[in-house]
Amino acid sequence: MIKKIICAFHLSLCFSLPADRFSYIVVEGRTGKILDAHHANRPQQPASLTKKMTLRLLFEALKSKKITLSTKFFVSALAQKQMPSRLDLKKGEWVSVESLIKGLVTKSANDGCIVVAENLAGSVDKFVKLMNKRAHQLGMKHTVFHNPSGVPNNKQQSTAYDMVLLAQSLYRDFPQYFHYFKTKGFQFRNKHYKNHNKLLGKIDGLDGMKTGYVEKAGFCITTSTSRIVKGKKVRLFVVVLGGKTAKSRDFKTIELIENNYAKIGYTAQCSYKMKKHDSVDQALSDIDTLPVGWSKPKMSSSHAA
Question: Which pLDDT does position 271 carry in this prediction?
Answer without folding.
Answer: 53
